[in-house]
Amino acid sequence: MKKTTGMDRSITANWRPQTRAVRAGTWRSDHGETSEALFLTSGYTYDDAATVAARFAGEAEGMTYSRLQNPTVAMLEERIAALEGAEACRVQTTGMAAMTTALLCQLSQGDHVVAGRAAFGSCRWLVDNLLPRFGIETTVIDARDNAAWEAAVRPNTKVFFFETPANPTMDIVDLEAVCALARSKGIRTVVDNAFATPMLQRPMDFGADVVAYSATKLMEGQGRVLAGAVCGSAEFINDVLLPFQRNTGPNLSPFNAWVVLKGLETLDLRAQRQSENALKLARAIESRVPVMLHPGLPSHPQHDLAQRQMKATGPIFSFIVNGREQAHALLDGLQLIDLSNNIGDSKSLMCHPASTTHANMAPEARAEMGVDEGMLRINVGLEDPDDLIEDLDQALTKAGL
User: Parallel, antiparallel, or unpaired: how do β-strands 291-293 and 228-232 relate?
Assistant: First the structure.
């Protein structure tokens, strides 16, 4: 395998995001293929025993085993790192594998984590259930409140963990303020940026240390495979995260890596168009629903903050109707938009978080984080937005709104 000269960091650094999404991390074999090659292999052969020993000792570059390195996977890692503006990246089997790895690789018994209360249900499960089982203390706060972060800090606080925008409440966290606070106290920030991707928001530009993704979502973009990614400094990725990942094995398959690589080529186009479609749809139905939660609208309490730290506000938003029964009635009335708990897809999808993505939480916990029984979350796709407006209009009417 040989890398293209374009992967020289001095050259890549001058590329704009759209170019990086298509070209960064491209390796080519002697065949000179234009599309990234798919290397379906678990192991590798060597010319001699000395080469094997040097590679395993870290004294020579080269592949040893696909739980550690694979050419297709490595291409994806380089491309995501380039998009994120990170020194390094490691990809994982799923988004939740990425979140778990990003946390457990750096935490030990007796450490303390401060986390945003509004989060994907499984992320809250990590904070509320998994970490405490290993003697890791956790405090959950309203991440929108900058003062709450400082008030929650203890001498043993090691990590701030949050999503922005948060799933499904669309809470926005002040990245610059929270990351600056963490840096001043020697605390590492781990930011879930799945709703935005680096095309719409780059947390590291605001001081974040680690950025984690469900690449299943917008990065892949068409609902085909599962994938996750963690970006950070070379020191964090290679010295802190990699030993954990190497020995626990949440590694992404080469095929899934290849699919995500192809998805990244159109990420900017999709993210921008889906953001536009979502904003148009939200504007069209805002007066029809009791509560609209879209950070791109002036009615959102953190609209100005979202405008400052995001290029666009993404394809996902939520709104609240009058209870679970009306929410289910609206979902049952849809004709074009699919009922699905996935997001980031090029198809429009809608779900009722309280009975799907956050069903594993007690009603009291859902209420505490703002997941109302009448909340609906929509992922707006690439369909004509006028068709989506018409579909949602007739479904709202059927539901009595």
Answer: unpaired
Is residue 380 within 8 Å of 391, Cβ to Cβ?
no
Three-state SS for 126? helix
The CATH code of the domain at 267-398 is 3.90.1150.10
Q: Parse the chain into domains and list their residue ranges.
A: 2-264, 267-398
Q: What CA–CA distance (Å, rounded) separates 100 from 126?
A: 7
State which CATH number among 1.10.10.10, 3.40.640.10, 3.90.550.10, 3.40.50.300 fits the domain covering 2-264: 3.40.640.10
Chain segment 28-67, per-residue pLDDT in tens: 888 888 889 899 999 999 999 999 999 988 898 888 888 8
SS3 192: strand
| Residue in the block written with tokens 């009306």 | 326
Rounded Cα distance, 86 and 209, in Å? 9
The two structure tokens encoding residue 99: 């979140």
- Please tell me the pTM assigned to this model: 0.94
Q: 279-331: per-residue pLDDT in tens? A: 999 999 999 999 999 999 999 999 999 999 999 999 999 999 999 999 999 99
